Amino acid sequence: MPGFNTLRIDQDASNPRVARLLLNRPERLNAINDDTPREIRAAVEWANANDEVHVILVEGAGKGFCGGYDLYHFGEGDIDHPCQQERHPWDPLDDYAFMKRNTEDFMSLWRSPKPTIAKVHGAAVAGGSDIALCCDLLVMAEDARIGYMPTRVWGCPTTAMWTYRLGPTRAKQLMFTGDVIDGRTAADWGLANEAVPLDELDARALALAERIAGVPRSHLAMHKMVVNQVLLTMGLEQTQSLATLFDGITRHNPEGLWFRRFAQDQGFKAAVQWRDSGRPIPEGDEARALIREMEDRRRTNR
Q: CA 300, 301, 302 angle in degrees (round to 5)?
């Protein structure tokens, strides 16, 4: 089996037609770092190259599926990164190229000719929801949570899957609020295929995978291609390009820079608590003034 830093993949011990892709940074809630997107693509390519595998089951180690991008690394840390350029003028095309590559890596789950199933417990939030929604099917624990809280500030879901999976009205509700929904609601809304008690999740997800795995690979690939073509005709790729560009803007406009400075000043937990609490988020001139105040304080403390 291939070796990775952030995940592992192998064939299920009882049914080798099922490959199990495990996001495996439980100490960081399987948060996404620089390696994660590339390794997801490589793992999917490995499964697709294995003729014995018919379906890929994606899951998370530890307390949850994936808590999104690693905010300690990307948000609180003092780095000049392609997705957060601050030591030189922001180059939107550098930002776009970096985030578009991540999006394409996540979308390897969607483009895989072999069906992919996300098995979600705990949380699949922010970038973690991108990974889950790039899978063809979604099985959740009833008390699991899914959503994209950074739509409140400092993010736009680059895979743009919410509208295609939920329809415009539900997608707007979640994008405007940044709220998360539980597995029961996700199933009621048609986002999840099924929501089950946590202690039944593994068995039910595996049963679905095994049912699919009995179908010839060529048939699975053709049926998936037909359904995916509908989304492509609806403009999925163009929507993702716009969303990826907007994601960079949300991180470099006054509100996005305020959020990052607040995370650096007070810690990412405090920044996330403010973002998710419903408190008004500073914007425009107010945000710029707070940024200057926090930057002055950081320079004084150095």
A: 95
